[in-house]
């Protein structure tokens, strides 16, 4: 599970209004006053939704980072090379690992990251 997948999971897990506020502010670049006016809520409420969204993102990000750092260095390298687009057999050649070891390390690492970021 890469950072983009984690972020997608976090966003999908947000309450609908919180997601709308977050996307309006962070993606569309709207200010709190504009969002409040469009949604018919107070600026304070917009701010509360942003705090909720950012808090959830920070929490999941911290768990993801901790799980990634808890992996042994070879497993981290396997993941990073896979995220860079290398195939499992090329990762094995690069790191001097058998294909089945690459696949086992990849699967174990992905399970650990998935468990750490499950909401």
Keywords:
119 residues; mainly alpha
Poorly predicted segments: none
Gyration radius over CA: 19 Å
Largest pleated sheet: none
Strand content: under 5%
What number is the mean pLDDT? 92
Provide the succession of SSEs. HHHHHHH
Number of strands: 0
Outline type:
elongated
Content-based structural category: mainly alpha
Count of alpha/pi helices: 7
Helix content: over 70%
- Measured between the Cα atoms of the first and last residue, the distance is 14 Å
What does this structure look like?
The protein is an all-alpha fold. 82% of the residues lie in helices and 0% in strands. It contains seven helices and no strands. It has helices at 3-13, 16-27, 32-39, 43-70, 73-83, 88-95, 99-117. Helix 5 crosses helix 7 (99-117). The longest helix is centred in the middle third of the chain and has 28 residues, at 43-70. It is elongated and about 60 Å long.
Write the layout of secondary structure elements.
Layout: H1 3-13, H2 16-27, H3 32-39, H4 43-70, H5 73-83, H6 88-95, H7 99-117
């Amino acid at each position: 599970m890469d950072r983009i997948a984690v972020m997608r999971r976090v966003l999908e897990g947000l309450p609908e209004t919180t997601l709308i506020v977050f996307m309006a502010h962070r993606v569309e670049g709207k200010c709190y006053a504009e969002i409040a006016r469009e949604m018919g809520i107070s600026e304070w409420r917009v701010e509360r939704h942003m705090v909720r969204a950012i808090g959830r993102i920070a929490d999941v990000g911290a768990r993801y980072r901790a799980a990634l750092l808890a992996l042994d260095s070879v497993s981290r390298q396997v993941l990073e090379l896979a995220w860079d687009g290398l195939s499992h057999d090329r990762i094995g050649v690069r790191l001097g690992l058998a294909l089945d070891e690459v696949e086992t390390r990849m699967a174990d690492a992905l399970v650990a990251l998935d468990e750490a970021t499950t909401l």
